[in-house]
Specification:
Rossmann fold; six-stranded mixed sheet; four-stranded antiparallel sheet; 10 strands
Amino acid sequence: MLRLVEVTKRFGARAVLPCVSLALAAGDYVAILGESGIGKSTLLNAIAGLEAVDGGSIEFDGRDLARMDDDALTLLRREQFGFVFQAFHVLPHLALEANVGLPLVLRGVGEAETAQRARGALAAVGLSGREGSMPRELSGGELQRVAIARALVGRPRLVLADEPTGNLDPENARQVLELLRAQVKSTGAAGILVTHSEAAAVGCDRRYRLGASGLAPA
């Protein structure tokens, strides 16, 4: 499904991604470990087509991202990718059902189906009955559950999670990581978790470390 071959990215004289190769199939859930500033978020941005790379290739479903224009990349992200971030990015002025349903609205899915799927996604992350709640009424752990529901409501084929527990206490972090893994696995998607935490990576199928020479098994 996803193949990176000797991907490089530089910022000036600094090689942020020195030579990164990776292959993922449907159902794979992998962790990429590394210290802050090593280039983990840059790697996710490159996979999502948000950052152009300087060398190598990134292919999703046999399509080379470098050969796709901005409109095609936007459509790919909207229809095939799901994103979970450290900062939640839940819209404060929308109730939970509307927050979770937003990716479907952007796809042009009908109102009734959007509502049904959003409610189902909230139920899957343990927030059934909270559809009308506002984000300010939720804890940090609950907000990250909303973010997971929103990432998966569109049934993406690839889920990209960037330090999704960085703002959570250890117990909430554990619960969110277990939930994220279970939800990704239940949908048959592939998933990439980037994190600086060894504990966060424990539940992944494979673990890699991003360093000066690229990705290596961890």
